[in-house]
Amino acid sequence: MIKRVGRKRFIECTVKLIIILAVFVSAYFVLDRIMLIKSEDGIVQMQAYYRQPEGSVDALFVGSSHIFCHINTGVLWDEYGISGFDLAGAEQPFWNSYYYIREALKSQRPKVIVLDITTPGIRPIDYQPENWFITNTYGIKRNSNRYGAIKASALSQSFARLLIPLNSTHGRCVELTEEDFLNYDDSVYYKGFDPRETTVVFERPDISGVTERAPLSDKETEYLKMIIEYVQQEGVPLLFLSSPYIVTKEEQEKYNTIFDIADEYGVPYIDGNKLYDEMGLDFENDFAEVLHLNRSGNEKLSSFIGRYLKDNYGLLDHRGDAKYGSWDVDAYRQRQDTHDYYLSQAVKNKDSKEYLRLLNEPAYVVFCCVESGYEGLVDDTVVAELEALGLKREMLTSHGAFILNKGQCIFSSYDYDFKAGINDGNRRILFYRTYDNDNDHAFTYVLDNGSFTHQSMTGYEKYMMEGEGISFYVFDTVHDKALGGYSIK
Amino acid sequence: MSLISVEFFLFIVIVLAIYFILPAKLQWVWLLVAGFFFYYLNATPIQCVVFLVFLCVNYAASLKITEDSPHPKAVFRCVLIFDVLLLVGMKYTGFFLDIFSWAAGLFSKGINPGITERLLNVVDLLCPPKISYFSLIVIGYMTDVYWGRVSVQKNPGKFALFASYLPQMTSGPIVQYEQMEGSLWGDKHHASYTRLISGTERIIWGIFKKLVISERLAVIVNEIYDHYEVYPGFYIGFAAACFALQLFCDFSGLMDIVLGVSEVFGIPLPENFNNPFYSTSLAEFWRRWHITLGGWLKSYVFYAVQQTEAFRKLRKACKKKFGKDYVKKCNIPQYLGLLISWFLIGLWHGGGWNYIFGVGIYMGIVIIISELCQPILAKLTLLLKINTEAFSYTLFKRFRTFILFIFGLSFFRAESLTYGFKMWRNAFSIFNPWIFFDRSLYALGIDEKEFHIMLLSLLILLVVSIMEHRRGGVKESAGGCEQMNGMRSFLSEQNFIFRLLIFLAMFIAIICWGYYGTSYDASDFIYGRF
Questions:
Q1: Selection from A380, A388, A381 nearest residue A358 by Cα
Q2: What is the pLDDT of residues B170-227, one digit of tens each?
Q3: Is A61 exposed, middle or buried (0-12, 13-18, 19+ CB in 10 A)?
Q4: How far is B198 from chain A (nearest CA, A)?
Q5: Any CB–CB contact under 8 A between B495 and chain A?
Q6: A249: which residues sit within 8 A by CB, 6+ positions away?
Q7: Does residue A428 sit in helix, strand or coil?
Q8: How many CB atoms lie within 10 A of CB A238?
């Protein structure tokens, strides 16, 4: 073959073929990266985990949403200086936890691994639906652990297809957003926590009398034992956690079986559904839905777990250590998230005073529209809150549009030059209001890369202020997101 | 094993890698082994046995039908009957049972459904995949040998390779022996960068047509065809047009993959499509659509029928009735031959009256009528002073041909002949042109974004077809097979980087826009089922 083709031609063709192959393979991997579902149900957690400074994670939490919705890494840091990470996936079965742990121990040597054991109770299936399969496997880098996770998770007839993520994810091409193309350079600050925000009232379940045992599937038992043996072999302490939720008798029977296995191997465990009082959980305010705690509930659980870990595993307080600076940022973001959460609760409860009090937060840029003649219609305490925000009493006497930040009015529609400097990132926000039912763009302003100018609406995000009264629209500069509006009428 | 699967392309890469290492003497043997192995992967053992029996019988018979053999005619007739019976038995048992059952019903004697079902199950069990292709290929070869057009292939392996050549075994084209004997064996085929790139480009283009265009159109077509009662008026016409484009992209995409793979092997296969939508008459259309099937029927049915005693007598009778220039006035023998050929084309597509009518008799009748009306139309255009050389007139003829074609083809997709007619009755039940303007088309299974992707893909297809048409379409000859001269020859003239970028774009389009993987159940190629 080679003899007939000139040597020069042969080299030229070979080089071209290598270039073609390299280009096509690169294109494949770039597309794979773009199309990957940026899900906080497991994938982003694993990607962020890879970016953590080597040897920095002291407490590794592995398992299902009972980890990433319940273990508030910000609280662990703020209260105990624990550098924790929620490396979990939605309804994560033991076989995925096994490979997550194997992958995790490549770059970190945590002082303790906390394993959530609730999936066999809540979702006792040997093969997950594909949406959960994706979030529990595709976050792992292409290596033997990922292969093992897919092999263990996929039915044999789907295995070959599922090895190639684009088979499942390429349909996203019509829904791609900015974040799909961004590099997650700052994800070192993300510690895996993704809480639920709703509040639902429940009756307190009583499983104190449940002593029966329900069997696990062979696959569940096999992988649970594999996890224990592997972690013990690696010399890392393991702790089982049955996180609190509205548990049923049948589910608790499964957990009893798991606790038996824990006893057999000498693994300690926390049965959260028997420690509601110790954690201080309140069934009127602390649950998001049947399976999950809300922000208020997870703060209590996290505080409890943090204390337990501190007392039993001698974890160091890393606060103030530059190596752990990313946990400072994470905690700051969690605090801001909590603040946003309480602001949303004030809106939900129509508690204007609480809302105004919470608005006075340096991270907020508050857009405000005032209908004329409001002076005297609100009581003095409200006026005082408004003044604290930077909205002076005289501004309430006629129509006006204002931007408030750090107790200052940084923009007023009374100004002629329409300029206000503000450090809010690169968001471009359209700010306008309506009179009655007729769109009136008299107050159409655009916040564009730090300057505030009067521009046309096209191409900008639109946030409409509600018609009458004093309307607010809040922008959270920590998370670079709009939080929505509220009106005092 | 689907032609669009990682498994298939891995298989081809392995076969290719070994193929190019082997000496010339063994290359064809390796192709035969690979072809048989591929067939084995796609068939049950018993179906493989039927296929082998078919090959053995035909090989043995081929040695006995040469001029120097005793009783060549009798042997040829016997083997022809065997081949036809096998094809009919395997493919059309259900169809003939339906007819028989209907006829029996006329005399109040129905057929026991249990017996029918058992018989159909047995046929399903025995029916070797791709019988519609390999049986025609072998029958053509046997006829050529009998007629003395080609010499008999005495090597059973080479005979088997001709009948079961790997790429062609997937879905045609329906090759003739003289097209293949020069390239399947003989000189060594060396690995060629040019052929590798050119073939791969063609494969990528075929996959694009199948996964990006055809499968997207299929969603619309399926939605309207499956619920035609709720999609009256222009919806039906829209679905028929979409189906024509779907089938074109599906079948020509399949051919691009087959021909691309074969090109990499260094074995050119004949083209099956030559920009059919540029045709100005239905007769021309069918010379550009499924070219090898039309060519096969012309060579082995139409001409053969014309040579029969009955047709000789008919020609004599016509001469007596209409005079010597009966050919111009009313060429009944030719029309009858055409109708027989069209009936067989329809039947080849499937055992159902919708196939026989839609892609068979209907097409034949329209062609005959248009031929009969030709003098009238010529006078009319002269009278109305229509410039028949103008582009607008050509465009009109193309549009007219397209409409005539999609009407017939719509029955191909319908579940039955009655179903097809009901659909068209529904098409004329309401005048609803607003569906093209009020976003109704976005509610046919694909949303606005998907619809725009489809339009963009069709635009790309249009650009490529314009380039092919302007460059003369199928014309260049390579190894006895005519080849498409279009986009690929244009690309071959371009710089490496530009060429790479074009196909990188196609690759990305397939990855992003293709219907494959989890969310979609991309059906197999429509013409892969025969």
A1: A388
A2: 887 999 998 888 888 878 888 889 899 999 999 999 999 999 999 999 999 999 999 9
A3: buried
A4: 12
A5: no
A6: A207, A210
A7: strand
A8: 22
Closest alpha carbon within chain A to B521: A167
Gap between the Cα atoms of A259 and B319, Å rounded: 100
CA distances from B409 to A139, A162, B363 (A): 48, 37, 9
Is B442's Cβ below 8 Å from some Cβ in A? no
Optimal mutation site among A11, A24, A132, interface B, most CBs of chain B within 10 A: A24
A217, with CB counted inside 10 A (0-12, 13-18, 19+), is middle
Please name the member of A16, A19, A24 whose beta carbon is closest to the beta carbon of B507.
A24
Give B21 to chain A, closest Cα distance, Å.
8
Contacts of A27 in chain B (CB under 8 A): 504, 507-508, 511
Q: Is B517 on the interface with A (CB under 8 A)?
A: yes
Structure tokens at B144: 């050529």
Residue A467 has pLDDT above 60, yes or no: no
pLDDT of residue A306: 96
Q: Which of A24, A163, A170 would you mutate first to test chain B, the one with the most B CBs within 10 A? A: A170
Q: Do B167 and B464 touch, CB atoms closer than 8 A?
A: no
Note the helical H segments in B359-443: 362-383, 391-413, 417-427
Q: Is the ipTM of this complex over 0.85?
A: no
Q: In whole angstroms, how far apart are CA A262 and each of A7, A101, A252, A397?
A: 67, 17, 15, 69
Check CB contact under 8 Å for A24 and B449.
Answer: no
Superfamily of domain A36-338: SGNH hydrolase (3.40.50.1110)
A366 contacts A401 by C-beta, under 8 angstroms: no
Residue contact B504–A23, C-beta within 8 A:
yes
| Contact at CB, A17 and B6, closer than 8 angstroms | no
Cβ under 8 Å to A: B residues 200-219: none
**CA B20/CA B36 separation, integer angstroms:** 19
User: How far is B20 from chain A, CA to nearest CA, in Å?
Assistant: 8
Query: What CA–CA distances, in Å, run from B456 to A177, A290, B50, B252?
Result: 21, 47, 46, 19
Instruction: Give me A484's structure tokens.
Output: 């929505």
- Distance, in Å, from the CA atom of B254 to the CA atom of B167, rounded to the nearest integer, reads 10
Pairing of strands A269-271, A238-242: parallel
CB contact (8 A) between residue B504 and residue A27: yes
Total Cβ atoms within 10 A of residue A123: 16
The alpha carbons of chain B give a radius of gyration, in whole angstroms, of 24
Contacts of B197 in chain A (CB under 8 A): 20
pLDDT tens across B346-359, in order?
998 888 899 999 99
B517: closest CA of chain A, how far (Å): 4
Cβ–Cβ of B453/A31 closer than 8 Å? no
Location of structure tokens 């199948």 = B210
Which of these, B461, B502, B525, lies nearest to B209 by C-alpha position?
B461
B482-485, long-range: CB < 8 A, 24+ apart: B482/B270, B482/B271, B483/B268, B483/B271, B484/B271, B484/B273, B484/B274
Domain spans in chain A, listed from the N-terminal domain onward: 1-34, 36-338, 351-488
pTM higher than 0.90, yes or no? no
Residues 6+ apart with CB under 8 A from B524: B2
Q: Calculate how close chain B gets to A195, using CA atoms only, in Å.
A: 29
Q: How far apart are CA B204 and CA B256, in angstroms?
A: 8
Taking a C-beta distance cutoff of 8 angstroms, is the pair B238, B441 a contact? yes
For residue A412, give both structure tokens: 């007023």
| Interval B425-460: pLDDT, tens | 999 988 999 999 988 899 898 889 999 999 999 999
